[in-house]
Amino acid sequence: MPATFCIPFFRDYALAMGCLSCDRDSIRAALSERRHKIRQSLLIVIGGAQESMLAHENSADLVLLKRRGFVSEAVRAGCDLVPVYNFNENSIYKLVDNPPGSLVHKFEMAIRSFFGFTILLFHGRNIFFTPYKTQLTTVVGRPIRVKRNYDASAEEIDEYHRLYVEELIRLYNKYQPKYAPNSKELRFVA
């Protein structure tokens, strides 16, 4: 979300909290040799604004299948890929229904196309946006060992991506009955 780092004071707050822009230069700087020596990890919300618009309660819709940039950067830096899934995060707030073609969806898409992120219409337990009580559980998958390659082929990137998706599916299927029994089946929508 590089556009969000142009908002006065928000940029400074986000940087102070350890957030980075998800553009290529920021990712490469974070994974550079100098920083890699201090054992720094990088967490990327791969689905971004597109996925946030699908975050309805008990849904498990991910935008991942066409996203290859994070894999490419991991291969370039020689950093392992570690799938992570958060159960019940879509239950903290309730999104206003936004089916494609609706006025709400058109508004969200207009904001997204202009700024690169979207403003979601949601509600909590009261007018102060107090989140709903829900148990959040983060599960971490097996690391996918990545061999550094500055000039990786599309096939190599695709293979690491396939392994990442397979591990994410395994992780979800293993822990979903325990931590989110009401959640729907994991779906890759894009």
Structural description of this entry:
The chain has 7 helices and 6 strands. It has a two-stranded parallel ribbon. The protein has a two-stranded antiparallel ribbon with strand order 2-5. A two-stranded antiparallel sheet has the order 3-4. It is globular and about 50 Å long. The protein is mainly alpha-helical and 190 residues long.
Total number of helices: 7
Low-confidence sequence ranges = none
Based on CA atoms alone, the radius of gyration comes out at: 18 Å
Structural class: mainly alpha
* Average residue-wise pLDDT: 88
Classify the beta-strand content into a percent band. Answer: 5-15%
How would a crystallographer describe the biggest sheet?
2 strands, parallel
* Terminal Cα span: 18 Å
Broad shape: globular
Helix-strand string:
HHHHEHEEHEEHE
Strand order of the largest sheet: 1-6
What fraction, in percent, of the residue positions are helical? 25-40%
The tally of beta strands, per DSSP, is 6
Write the layout of secondary structure elements.
Elements: H1 10-16, H2 24-30, H3 33-36, H4 48-52, E1 61-62, H5 69-77, E2 84-87, E3 94-95, H6 103-115, E4 122-123, E5 137-140, H7 154-179, E6 187-188
Parallel strand pairs: 1-6
Antiparallel strand pairs: 2-5, 3-4
What are the defining features of this structure?
190 residues, mainly alpha, two-stranded parallel ribbon, 8% strand
